[in-house]
Amino acid sequence: MTAPRWCETVRRAAPLAFVRDWVAGTAAIGALYLLMRVPFHPTQIPGYLLVVGFDVLEATLGSTGTRYPLWFAAYLSGLGAAGAVVSRVLRTLAVRTDVSGWRVGVAGGCVVVGAGALAFALFVSARVGVVSVLLTGGTALALFAVAGLFLRFGA
Q: How far is it, in rounded angstroms, from Cα 17 to Cα 89?
């Protein structure tokens, strides 16, 4: 039995490419978090979902106390690492092969936050109401669309 093509690509990927994807994904996730500061409610949803995701982890693992900013930065960096793994898979599935590496890393970060938003919509918001499901589900779809745009346009 042979491994799928994307497994081989991930296994043989250069370590520096992973670091580049990690940095780009973490920067994208950090930018989505900073959108919470924009006084326009639809742009604040991804940052809110990032904070809620961390608060769920904090409630599960215990209080971070005065080290909240440090652990939150580590959480965002961990999501960036997950985005780097996703970007390696996206690179093998992409239609275009001439897309810049950092664009694929940003797309990976958007996909990770979009997946978190979709999970929040399906498992948490469904108990609250239809409006919450529509808002978080729409946010997930918008983040997936942004990831697709980063993969589709630009070299």
A: 13
Find tokens 């990032």 and name the residue: 50
Q: What ranges in the chain are assigned the alpha helix state H? A: 5-12, 15-34, 41-61, 68-93, 101-123, 130-152
Structure tokens at 85: 């793994």
Number of domains in the chain: 1
Domain of 54, in residue numbers: 5-152
Other Cβ atoms within 10 Å of 34 Cβ, number = 12
Contact 82, 112 (CB under 8 A): yes
List, for residues 47-93, the tens digit of each pLDDT value.
999 999 999 888 888 888 889 899 999 999 999 999 999 998 888 77
Closest listed residue to residue 77, CA positions, set 18, 155, 135, 22: 22
Q: Which pTM was predicted?
A: 0.84
CB 57 within 8 A of CB 72: no
> Phi and psi at residue 143, in whole multiples of 5°?
-70, -35
In angstroms, what CA-CA distances link 50 with 46, 77, 97?
6, 12, 31
